Amino acid sequence: MLVILLTLVAVTTLLPMVYMFISSFRTMSEYIYSPLGFPTRFRLDNFISIASGYPLLRNFSNSLILSLVSLGLSLLVSVPAAYAFAHIPTRWGSIVYVATISLMMVPIMVTLIPRYIIFSRIGILDSRLSLYLSYTAGALPYTVFLLTVGFKAVPKELVESAKIDGAGYAQVIFNVILPMGRATIITACILNFVSFWNELVQAMMFVSNEKLKTITVLVSTMGGRYVSNMPLILTGLLIASIPMIVVYVFFQRYIVEGITMGASK
Amino acid sequence: MKRFGGLVLVLFLGGTLAVFGSGKKEGNTLKYWMIGNPTTEADQGKPADQWYVNQAVKRFEAKTGIKVEVSIFPDQSAFADKFKAAGIAKNGPDVSGIWGGSVMFDNKDFILPLDPYFTADELSQIASINAFRYNYKPDGPLLGIPNAVSNDSLMLFYNKEIFKQAGISDAEIPTDVNSLVAACEKIKKIGVTPIAVGDQEGYYSAFMMLPLYASASGAQGIRDIVEGRKTFAQDGDFVAAARAYQQMYSLGYTNPDVVSLNDSAGQTLFASGKAAMIVTGQWMIAAGYQLLGDKLGMAKWIALRSDAKYKGLMVGGPSQAVCVTSYTKIPEQAVQFVKFLMSKEELIQCITVGNNSAGSTPFKVVPPDTFKDPFSKMLVDFNKNAPFSVFWLDNQLPQEVATELYRMSPLLLSSAMTVDQYVAKMDEVMKRNILK
Amino acid sequence: MAISPMHGHSGKTRPRHDNLTAFLSVLPMIAFIVAITVYPTLNALFHSFTKWDGIHVEFIGLDNYVQIAKDPRFWQLLLNTLIYVATVPVQILIALFIMVLLYEKLPGWRFFRSLFYLPNVLSPIIIGLIFRQAFMWEGPINAFFKMNHLDWLAMDWLSKGPTAMGVILIAIIWNNFGYGVVLFLAGATMIDPCVFEAALLDGANWFQKTFRIFLPLLGRVIAFFSVTTIIWIFTGLFGLIFAITKGGPGYDTTTLEYMIYLNAFKAGGKMGYACALAVYLFVITFGISRVSMLVTDRSDR
Question: With an 8 Å Cβ cutoff, is A132 touching chain B?
Fold first, then answer.
């Protein structure tokens, strides 16, 4: 009984994606005739059109580079800070921590306009750097939060004993904190990676150069261009969703952990 | 875990290098930014060295020794933002294409006035040159020279075959609202959509409604409103035009999804033969001819009434200009390049070799038979023999009012708003933006 | 980055050394945040009192704020956003329902949980475009209705405000309910099974089990879900709206956040006005999180 209900809900959930998947194998005329049907033959025409009509590799690599570098930058900045919040007691520590966390709820739109103008003025507007900076700043509060929680779970004794053994700052981090907090770090990585990849507004506004567009931005332009060839658009959407689905399939454990950790604050 | 941190560091460094590696080229090259057209030569599959612009640049370099670096921007809607951002950062081009009207005026600070570089004689060779003077004032600074083939015209396109099937003779091709209604009824009877409208962006109020208004009020009407001498509500012709526009949907003369269909989808609707008519600029000729061939017919858009004062007027005008930026380090060379593009030989080259979407040119020096395709000839005739011509009305509106016009168009058309509500809203925005 | 500790510090110098290390550790983060988040926010606040097009700045005091408050369109935007927020109870119900189904942890439950969360990893623009294609005039939804002689249901969903909004509502629910499932499941599994056994001994049936035991204990998790989702609806729906309706028809499906985008980048640079809108938005979201914190603090006995 349970299983039946579950399956029903699962099928309903999958419907939009099934629709996208099936339509991508159909031709425009088939679709116009009957939007709801199955393909008569499994043609790859749409895939070929999309692949040849767009420099997909370039957009994918843009998204990849952007997400990875922003990720690296975020970690570079958050790890020391989280370590300090978790293991270096200071009088001002909790105030700064709370202040940082509370920045989580600053809407993107509030900073978007000033960032746009500031980036124009210093001339980095149409470059990847503008996005690296913007994304990292946006990810910092949540990342610091996650990492602090994760690092706090590393027993103080371990840190102390490492210091007694003469470990320096960097060594403590690399030999104690990072290995023990590995799960949290990977969670933070995955969550940030996904959100960077899927981000639209900033990527759209800060970078208009065709050569630097991410796959997400590319998808947003497709909606307007090939409106009449619906299967083609759906194929584009399908191709664009594959990376995140793949990431999800492999890393879902970490995503789930990250969410639940956020909830049990 | 040292590896992990190391990896992070490498990523970061690599990223920064990638960013700064794509560095800026300095030197004495002239940077030219072009706005891509819907039917660019790239789309037609021509290799880059056969494109008009690249050939022109080679000729210029040979003649003057000045190197030119061309950048083409296919995304037209983003171009205005890009130009402004480049202006703020002062890292933009030396010569650039730019849309006329509010886009150009908005960016006035970044454009070099060209009056010192041109004699009155030279300027008299260009029709509608005042369209590129600041705020359209005849004594305002000249901000740009029209693009070679930029004389856009609003036209009514129709499918000759559908008209024949519906029994519409040549004499019955619509010229005013009444004859349009008659034709649409006939087309409806044979089960075809009479008019294709893709109004998600709201352009069709500018294409269909404003020209109706202009046919009764001429060029002065819109100026009166924009300069605050009259409101939209007070202008009976405007209200009548809005009403007529709304009726096209409510009487069932358009496709049902006008609100959610976008402009290019609407054009496809017509070009694929599923609708009998479409009202848009002459850029429709290229796509239309490709799909409909000889079935494509072109006529003037209708007037509001059969006795309208300005019946037979042409709406349109040069919509794109070439300008010189105010922050260029090489103004003399930049102007030299602009004059080169304006020279008779280059104009003829541009028209014959380059952009093939038919058009007409505002440059009087171009012999009329340069345009070889039948539609261009028709356009030249229409323009030459038009009793009146009016510049694009939406371009004449202040930008905030134009935005409101576009935004409200689908609501008016689909009767989600009444005509009175619509006019009131337009007046509300206009009040804040009166041009002095 | 590496700071070697000095040799042989006594208990007294330790705190000072700690302070320095801690300070240097958080310095990059603070520098980043101040430069790229705090400064722009203050910048936006400043410009909200001006008329600004990116280049020219003209101080006009509270004009923007007053104009916004007087504009009926502003209240329409808030109403729109509230309508979107009305999906939250629906999402909660759906997520709870599924959570109950999965609670027994029958074999394969992890697979189902993954499935339900999958829509959340997709980019909102992709989701939006799928739904847009589906509900277009010539799309499968209308075709489905026509095939089953329900022609009157087939309409251009995206051309009238209420129905366009309906499509967005469905998209929001589809996108986000999986988040609820994961969250509630995690919360539920933290509840001590002894509580249930005690209830069973007292003769509680399934209905009572769910409503009188589960829900109150899950309260905190549900509250967390609600707050984060509501804030997301206020500040993060850009992708969905852009994909499905671009805010139209007119402004019928626009939110306050989307309006900021329209005003700053589309309407010919009313950036000062857009900044004022942004400040309104900030105040509202700040208010929501403040209120939520107060409520959860009070209910935590």
Answer: yes
